[in-house]
Design a protein that fits this description.
By secondary structure, the chain is of the alpha+beta class. It has 7 helices and 8 strands, in the order βββββααααβββααα.
């Protein structure tokens, strides 16, 4: 009877918080279960067999005892600790934002193979020294679909017509504006053709096929402005990791 309650999943720790003197409550995102919370008893103790498996960003196999409420982690086996992320402040900051964004925009126990793949590949590439900022842009763009607030990128957000050229992005209207509709939002953000192409690419890109992406500083600035303003206006999220990342960027 006890064995029937034991379950094994392969996942990534996206949140780890201290609980009491020696315990941790961890949140794992797995392909099998989606997001799930587990109690890791004694994990705060350095000699605990659950200490390393309960660290943020850890990718591994987790054996847990399920229940109606919070499950209990019984043992785990690390596949990857994403060590390079842990040893670099900037990589840690970007990765912390990525996992917090996923945590805030997903419900418990709603499996998604594509989301798990997105999470794993994003962390994997950051760990392997790919451009963390660009990877974060891609992750943010794709998560707009998950949040149900994806902007309109194929036609003008105001007149709903497909144009050869767009001049700006409107946070208010939720997409690009053509030359005839610029008056629809006087606070629209001017965006280059490169930025427009990249935002469309980020929406559909299979991250497994990611090559080296080199972005001009002006293009980075435009994409960052679009995504930050769009999330701020439409998502209702306040993320501590985002605030820290913004502060860190000033010293980059």
């Amino acid at each position: 009877m006890v064995n029937s309650l034991l379950r094994k999943i392969e996942g990534i720790v996206i949140r780890s918080i201290d609980y009491g003197e020696s315990n941790k409550i961890i949140t794992i995102y797995s392909q099998e279960t989606g997001k799930i919370g587990l109690m890791a008893r004694g994990a705060k103790k350095t000699n605990s067999r659950l200490s390393s498996i309960s660290q943020l960003f850890t990718y591994g196999h987790f054996l847990y005892r399920s229940s109606k409420g919070l499950g209990t982690l019984t043992q785990g086996e690390i596949i990857s600790s994403f060590r390079s992320i842990r040893e670099d402040l900037f990589k840690t900051a970007y990765s912390a934002y990525i996992v917090e964004l996923l945590d805030k925009l997903t419900e418990d126990k709603q499996p998604s193979a594509s989301l798990f793949s997105l999470l794993y590949n994003t962390l994997h590439y950051i760990n392997d020294d790919y451009d963390a900022e660009v990877l974060t842009f891609i992750f943010e763009t794709k998560m707009l679909y998950v949040a149900g607030i994806a902007p309109q990128l194929d036609v003008c957000a105001s007149c709903n017509q497909r144009r050869d050229r767009y001049l700006a992005f409107s946070v208010k209207e939720g997409g690009f504006l053509c030359s005839q509709c610029l008056q629809a939002d006087r606070h629209s953000i001017k965006v280059s053709e490169a930025t427009q192409k990249l935002l469309r690419l980020f929406m559909t890109l299979d991250l497994k096929r990611l090559g080296k992406i080199s972005l001009k500083q002006e293009t980075r600035a435009e994409i960052k402005e679009v995504l930050e303003n769009y999330y701020e206006t439409h998502s209702g999220l306040y993320l501590k990791s985002k605030r820290f990342l913004s502060q860190l960027d000033k010293f980059d």
